[in-house]
Design goal:
2 copies of one chain form a homodimer. Chain A is an alpha/beta fold and about 325 residues long. Chain A is built from 7 helices and 15 strands. In chain A, strand 6 and strand 7 form a beta hairpin. Chain A is globular, with a radius of gyration of 19 Å. In chain A, about 50% of the residues are buried. The N terminus of chain A is likely disordered. Chains A and B meet through helix 4, helix 5 and helix 7 of A and helix 4, helix 5 and helix 7 of B.
């Protein structure tokens, strides 16, 4: 027998979603100040739901595997969590923040945290898919989110503005995750993100990567008939940082053109590509931030429109659940 | 214990893929002639694999539910199948055709059929997801493809040019299907297609729909790290056809603008949007046909490039198969 899940709250017809795209440096207090100012600005522009980038309190420390970086981790609740909880109460809005969570000594997660007005901290989501590739050494830091039963893993969070399907960055490349959130009643999908270019890559390769990132997430909107938004960080962060490092790109390295940056061992830093966006349920771009600067993006969403779109494109009706067993395999060999 | 499946043939490094985008009318012999001419032309341009549109031997008869239309169905092998089998042998190429299959009296499928040079008919795929919405009454005509065990359903077909993940039209909207083909070793995905605009829709709506169609399929390429191609039909086909009907659009109907075409009961026909395309494993468009005319699209594909892309974006490594059980449910309620 299935444990009853919380009833879906009455659907709001519209919500106003704000994204706070900002750069981060080596000083957490600077970053938190920026995040707070961004949330205030979005709220002033009418947002009742505000999404921040992934790990917005720190520089993107996962560019190296350094034991010292575990010092950035915090419990939830904890100081950063309390700060955003107070802010959500003060502004009477929903805030989705992102925290390097210390769950226990030696056990850490990459966690999105939801604060709902005066209710404060109401839920969290621990990143389920963890990347690991040059400049993104996340498997060193983050334990993947739990899955012990249907009640855990890819569960939307009920808030006063709607039922939010919150995931984190690398999750955005997995159609399975978007579908599971949809099937659990998510009304929109939200992804705090930290993704960018290797400055050594060609312009063509850079465009291909950013476009692929947008395309995959717009596709989740289309296949599932709901709005999707991602909030990314922006700006250059050097690969080897010290307290004195300035956030300026290194000079162009003399690598031969034919060796992709991914195959080199010299970290060249990450140029985070911003491009935070809000897409509607047909995958149409409603709002898009630049790839160059801090930016607040605000857009109104009509959540009832999703059902009309799903009636026009009835994909959920036709899924061949009898034939999808192979999705639970690593490979069908 | 799992029944052993045929071993994958040695991977070819490159293949040349041709798409034959063409219009169809009420006269099957005209359409077959067009298909054959298109295949010949693609082969002359170097294609060793040629994909035809969905149900290319007939007009898109699914615009109405008419019992007479079952007369279009043929067995496989049968006359149309034999014709393309001979053509594949003559040109020594692989052809993917699409046939309204009569499997038994009263049992019909929408089937993609593969012919491989002198080996002739080597495999088929019966459309798994069947649409049904105004102007596309396919559930009346087509039984969905079988799934009784892992060996059936979403199985690629080994050919002399590679292991082909062939699906049909509506299947293209389901990320589950693309993933299953990938996990079974498909080296590229191919979709014979018949999709178009309701002439009554606004230009904005039309653009949104065609863009969504492209976006979803490019997303399959990205998420799965392999090339994807679709071959669509082109041209206007009226909603109510007789032997005397010409393929010209009806005059603009006086519907109020605010009622979407999907909600009206007057069939206004379909303007098939062509836009047949070939995308690479990062979702990049390699070749794209127009939305206005018959067109042969030919492009060379380097199949070994997919593995490099998958190493750079290692999505297959990180799937949370422990947490995907909900994908086998209709809804997680």
């Amino acid at each position: 027998m299935t444990t009853p899940r919380p009833r879906k709250p009455p659907m709001k017809e519209t919500m106003t979603l704000g994204l706070v795209q900002h750069a981060c440096n080596h000083e957490p207090s600077d970053n938190i100040k920026k995040s707070i100012e961004g949330v205030r600005s979005a709220a002033q522009q009418g947002a009742n739901l505000v999404l921040l980038p992934e790990l917005h309190s720190t520089r993107y420390f996962c560019q190296q595997e350094l034991i010292d970086n575990f010092a950035y981790a915090e419990t939830i609740p904890g100081p950063t969590s309390d700060r955003f909880s107070q802010l959500a109460a003060e502004l009477d809005i929903v805030i989705v923040a992102s925290i390097f969570e210390r769950r226990a000594p030696g056990l850490y997660h990459n966690t999105a945290v939801v604060f709902d007005g005066k209710r404060g901290l109401i839920g969290k989501y621990r990143k389920m898919h963890i990347p690991d590739d040059p400049d993104y050494y996340e498997k060193y830091y983050f334990t993947p989110g739990d899955y012990e039963s249907e009640k855990q893993g890819f569960q939307p969070i009920n808030t006063s503005v709607g039922r939010l399907g919150i995931m984190v960055c690398w999750d955005q490349w997995f159609p399975e995750a978007a579908r599971l959130m949809t099937l659990a009643g998510a009304e929109l999908l939200l992804y705090p993100t930290a993704i960018g270019w290797d400055p050594q890559d060609t312009d063509i390769e850079k465009e291909k990567q950013c476009d692929a990132w947008l395309t995959v997430q717009r596709s989740h909107a289309i296949c599932n008939g709901l709005p999707v938004a991602a909030c990314n960080r922006i700006g250059f962060e050097p690969g080897i940082t010290t307290r004195n490092t300035t956030n300026t790109p290194p000079p162009k390295a003399p690598f031969p053109k034919e060796i992709p940056a991914q195959k080199r061992n010299t970290p060249s830093g990450i140029q985070f590509w911003g491009s935070s966006f809000i897409a509607g349920p047909q995958g149409e771009i409603i709002a898009l931030a630049s790839d160059k600067a801090d930016e607040i993006v605000v857009a109104k969403l009509d959540l009832t429109h999703s059902e009309t779109v799903r009636q026009t494109w009835p994909f959920l009706r036709d899924r061949r659940i009898d034939a999808y067993g192979g999705l639970l395999k690593r490979y069908r060999d």
